[in-house]
């Protein structure tokens, strides 16, 4: 750190410059043909003439962060996976309406810039952007001494996508008889970590380096498992199969997110017996003595995405997802309930080990 007045106040400009140099190669990997220039400008530029090929383009946007999962990354000293969580929370909120993610910007706030740590965070963001086909168009790294401890950081971002107006997915397309096709989550993803950390670490007294037999690895490794980014796979699915609506299962759990794409006068009955949640969900529920209603209102319980589609499209959809390496299964069906509010009902019990 230099001896400038700003440096004496705790802001290291040289470290920030070093972080930018380290992240340039990661950002370059995400570049799409529409991206103009590189990082370092005041704004990222994206050639919007792409939209001229659309009949009636609708822009979609989403903003989010990763919550307290960052605390696990810090405690583990592993920073190159948390970016997957950020990108997943962003782009998978776009694809549920049928929008192709175009570009993403990130924001990293920290108590002290450690160039290698910032670059590792950006590495994960870039890896996930490549998976989603989305450009990392720009971002900001902000050093906040006095507001955050030197080893603290948090990340957030925003993304923009585009969809044809007549191809927009949503409740107005859903029909009685549609099948709910679940897609497996990779674990907890990036929701419910305040509960998980409290139950397992604070009350349960478990340590992150403890090997948990039912998980087959350490608790820290399990809790740091990156969010699965569905965007690239879902866009391929939509190219080949007719889908009416989709739901990204995040905070609030399966029922609360799925009902957001169910129209008035319809309900979706979901059968828990069609899948068994991974061990981490069982561990959290048993350790915290959490009711089924509470756990399902907080965690994804093994389902990261749900598509509502016609029955005659289910087999084809599963073949596509199998080809793309994503496990899926029919978990429920839509029925008409005239005059009633939209509802999602979970019944049955998950299979036991």
From TrEMBL:
Pfam families: AIRS, AIRS_C
ATP-binding is among the record's keywords: yes
Compartments, as annotated in UniProt: Cytoplasm
Catalytic activity: 2-formamido-N(1)-(5-O-phospho-beta-D-ribosyl)acetamidine + ATP = 5-amino-1-(5-phospho-beta-D-ribosyl)imidazole + ADP + phosphate + H(+)
An annotated GO BP: 'de novo' IMP biosynthetic process
Record-annotated PurM-like N-terminal domain positions: 58-163
SUPFAM superfamilies, sorted: PurM C-terminal domain-like, PurM N-terminal domain-like
Cellular component GO terms held in the UniProt record: cytosol
Enzyme Commission number(s): 6.3.3.1
Keywords in alphabetical order: ATP-binding, Cytoplasm, Ligase, Nucleotide-binding, Purine biosynthesis
Enzyme class: ligase
MF GO annotations: ATP binding; phosphoribosylamine-glycine ligase activity; phosphoribosylformylglycinamidine cyclo-ligase activity
Residues of the PurM-like C-terminal domain: 175-339
Superkingdom: Bacteria
CDD domains noted in UniProt: PurM
Pathway it works in: Purine metabolism; IMP biosynthesis via de novo pathway; 5-amino-1-(5-phospho-D-ribosyl)imidazole from N(2)-formyl-N(1)-(5-phospho-D-ribosyl)glycinamide: step 2/2
InterPro entries: PurM-like_C_dom, PurM-like_C_sf, PurM-like_N, PurM-like_N_sf, PurM_cligase
UniProt cross-references to NCBIfam families, sorted A to Z: purM
Family: Belongs to the AIR synthase family.
Protein name: Phosphoribosylformylglycinamidine cyclo-ligase
Species this protein is from: Propionibacterium freudenreichii subsp. shermanii (strain ATCC 9614 / DSM 4902 / CIP 103027 / NCIMB 8099 / CIRM-BIA1)
